[in-house]
Design a protein that fits this description.
Elements lengths: L3 H4 L6 E2 L3 E4 L4 E4 L5 E3 L2 H12 L7 H9 L6 H16 L8 E5 L3 E5 L12 H11 L2
Antiparallel strand pairs: 1-2, 2-3, 3-4, 5-6
Keywords: DNA-binding
Protein name: Winged helix-turn-helix domain-containing protein
Organism: Alteromonas salexigens
Length: about 140
């Protein structure tokens, strides 16, 4: 799978006020607890997308392009990926749980994290370019 998420995989940990996520190992840990949770590869990659730009809304097209690249992926596949991430996040027992908020007709947003000064916006220009190229 040659998606942008694979080619730009960030192996540096994402540190937030309450959580620490290591993209290389797909491990999420809480700074308040000693426990660590290992997410599936897809759920971990999806969480990494949300953590790169906290409180930013990811559209379905951005998720589709970041996770699957140029592959044709239905909305149901995206729904299942979000659902699996939500299930894995709800299994984590912390005082400040991470949650995925659905914004109908717009996309998804991660709640429960604070903005970090080094947070990056997702590669929106690549999504637009990929969408235009797929029309050709």
């Amino acid at each position: 799978m040659n998606s942008l998420a694979d080619s730009h995989a960030d192996t540096a940990p994402y540190a937030r006020t309450t959580y620490h996520y290591n993209a290389a190992t797909h491990e999420l840990s809480s700074k308040h607890q000693a426990a660590r949770w290992t997410l599936s590869k897809q759920a971990g990659t999806l969480l990494g997308l949300f953590l790169r730009a906290p409180k930013y809304t990811l559209s379905r097209d951005e998720i589709r392009f970041q996770l699957w690249g140029h592959a044709v992926v239905s909305d149901d596949v995206i729904n299942h990926a979000i659902c699996r991430l939500r299930k894995q996040l709800t299994s984590i027992d912390t005082p400040d749980p991470l949650q995925i908020e659905t914004l109908p007709g717009i996309g998804y947003r991660l709640c429960g994290v604070e903005d970090a000064p080094h947070a990056q916006r997702p590669y929106r220009h690549w999504v637009i370019l990929a969408s235009l190229l797929s029309l050709l």
